[in-house]
Write a structure and sequence with these properties.
- The protein is built from nine helices and seven strands; from the N terminus they run E-H-E-H-H-E-H-E-E-E-H-E-H-H-H-H.
- Strands 2-1-3-6-7 form a five-stranded parallel beta sheet, with helices on both faces. A two-stranded antiparallel sheet has the order 4-5.
- Strand 1, helix 1 and strand 2 form a beta-alpha-beta unit.
C-alpha cells in the first residue's frame, strides 16, 4: 500500500475531459490499495519559476517563492507515484508548465551523464519512485500526444525514476456523445489505475481500450470544420 498524488489541469476543475478521465483512474488506484491526493492546478496559485536555482545552489531542496506550491511540496515528497494529468494544448497549458518547472526543488543537484544526457535524481526525502501520465486531446489522432508524452518521459528520466505509461484519450469530446463507449472507456481507466497500484504497470490492452477511435478521422474533422463555419457565419 503506497500513496499516489495526481496534479492536473482541466478547463473545468471537476467536469472537464481530463478531470473526468483522471477521476476514474484514481478510483482504480484507491481500489488497488493506495491512498490518494488529487490537486487541481487551476485552483492553485503557482507562480512561474524564476530560474535562479535558489533551490539548488543557495538552499538545496527549498523554493523561495511563497505561493501554493509550498503546501504541494509536502504531499509530493510523500508520494510513491506521481500522476501528471493534462489536456494537450501547444503543447501544455501554461499552468501545467509552471508546475513542472517548480518541481526542480525535489531533485538533488548532483549530476551524472547517462547515454549522453545529463541526469539528476530525487532528494533522499522524496519518495517518488514512478511517474505516469493521463491526458486528453481535442485532435483525432493519437500522435497528437507525442510531445506531451515526451515531456513526461523526460521529467522521469531527468529525475531517474521510471515512467510507467500513459492513459490517453484522443477526440475526447466524442466520448460523452456515446454513453456506452464512455462507460467502457471510464471503466478501462479505472482498471488501469487498479493495475498500476497493484502491479506497478498498466496493460497495453487496457490502455488501447481507453484510446480507441470513436469516429472516423474524416467525419470528426468535417464536424469541427462545419461548426467553425457556422460560428464564422454568425459573426458576419
Amino acid at each position: 500500500m503506497g500513496k499516489s498524488v495526481a496534479v492536473y489541469y482541466s478547463s473545468s476543475a471537476e467536469s472537464g475531459n481530463t478531470a473526468r478521465l483522471l477521476a476514474s483512474f484514481m478510483r482504480g488506484i484507491e481500489r488497488g490499495g493506495d491512498t490518494t491526493e488529487t490537486f487541481a492546478i487551476k485552483d492553485l496559485n503557482i507562480s512561474p519559476c524564476t530560474g535562479e536555482f535558489h533551490c539548488w545552489f543557495k538552499v538545496p531542496g527549498q523554493c523561495y517563492i511563497q505561493d501554493d506550491m509550498q503546501d504541494l511540496y509536502s504531499s509530493l515528497r510523500e508520494a510513491e507515484t506521481l500522476i501528471l494529468a493534462t489536456p494537450v494544448y501547444i503543447p501544455l497549458p501554461g499552468e501545467m508548465q509552471n508546475l513542472l518547472n517548480r518541481l526542480c526543488p525535489l531533485m538533488e543537484p548532483i549530476l551524472e551523464t547517462r547515454d549522453g544526457r545529463t541526469r539528476a535524481k530525487m532528494h533522499e526525502d522524496v519518495a517518488i519512485s514512478r511517474i505516469a501520465l493521463v491526458s486528453t486531446s481535442g485532435w483525432w489522432e493519437i500522435g497528437n500526444f507525442d510531445t506531451v508524452v515526451r515531456i513526461a518521459c523526460e521529467l522521469a528520466e531527468d529525475a531517474s525514476v521510471p515512467f510507467v505509461g500513459s492513459v490517453l484519450r484522443p477526440h475526447a469530446s466524442v466520448m460523452w456523445q456515446q454513453e456506452e463507449k464512455a462507460r467502457e472507456i471510464l471503466d478501462a481507466a479505472e482498471a488501469a489505475g487498479y493495475q498500476l497500484a497493484t502491479t506497478g504497470t498498466m496493460s497495453s490492452d487496457t490502455l488501447a481500450v481507453i484510446s480507441q477511435p470513436l469516429t472516423s478521422e474524416e467525419e470528426y474533422r468535417r464536424g469541427l470544420n462545419e461548426n467553425y463555419l457556422r460560428v464564422k457565419g454568425k459573426g458576419h
